[in-house]
Every structure is written in structure tokens, then in C-alpha cells.
């Protein structure tokens, strides 16, 4: 479920998850199901910030998958794909999304009526998010 990269690091963090593998979403589903049982409140924070696309650039199979799915080398489209495939998982658990502002900028699937979006970049981030709705 991890991309194949060895060189790319980002603030000392690992490579993240590989959205091109179905198993990734099976693991996410299992984790979110377990978390929803432990924490029954209606909100779930799913992060979405500081994704290391440099790692994705190293993974030949991942890039080949992106090409075959019409994404070219646009890693924003890959992140959109990831978010679009995670959304049905948390909505099936009847959870409202809490996320960092990054998620809103690269995904049009964030429900503006129910999501709580945390602005973290700069003062302008909150203003931009407010204008988006």
C-alpha cells in the first residue's frame, strides 16, 4: 500500500500511501471502520496535508498507472482520485469530514455543507476558503 520510493523524503516523513492500489482503500476502510467504533462522534479528521508527490515521481509502476488513467504526470489528479475513493468510505460510516485546507484545493468532493476545514497556511488561506463556500 506504499509507493516504491527510497530517495524522496519530506520533513523526515515517510512515503505516504499508494492510491493506485485497491488494497490501499481496503486497509483505509478497515482502519476507519475500527476508529468509528472507538469514536462514535459524527466527525472524523482525515488530514490531507503535505502529501509527498516527490515520492510518487520515483515509483515507475505508479506513474505508468497514472498514464493509463489519463492523469499524465499531474499528481493533483492522483490526489483527487485518492480523495474521491476515500469519501464513500467515511460517508458510509455516517461521518462528517474534518480536514486540512489542502484537501479542498485539490478535490471537489469535499461537502461544503458538513465538512470542517482547518486553514493552516496563512491568513489568506482562511479568506480563500471562505470565498469557496
Write a brief structural summary.
With 133 residues, the protein is mainly alpha-helical.
| Number of discrete helical segments | 6
- Overall geometry comes to globular
Overall radius of gyration: 15 Å
Oligomer: single chain
* Low-confidence regions: none
**Roughly how much helix do the residues carry, as a percent range?**
40-55%
Tell me what portion of residues adopts beta-strand conformation.
5-15%
Number of DSSP strand runs: 3
List SSEs in N-to-C order. HEHHHEHEH
Order the strands across the largest sheet as they lie in space.
1-2-3
- The helix/strand class is mainly alpha
Instruction: Give the integer mean of the pLDDT values.
Output: 86
How far the N terminus sits from the C terminus, by CA atoms, comes to 34 Å
Mind summarizing the main beta sheet? 3 strands, parallel
Describe this structure in words.
- The structure is a single chain.
- This protein has 133 residues and is mainly alpha-helical.
- Helices cover 49% and strands 8% of the residues.
- The protein has helices at 22-38, 53-58, 60-68, 75-92, 101-105, 123-132; strands at residues 43-45, 96-100, 116-118.
- It has a 3-stranded parallel beta sheet.
- The protein starts with 21 loop residues before the first helix and ends with a helix.
- The model has no long low-confidence stretch (mean pLDDT 86).
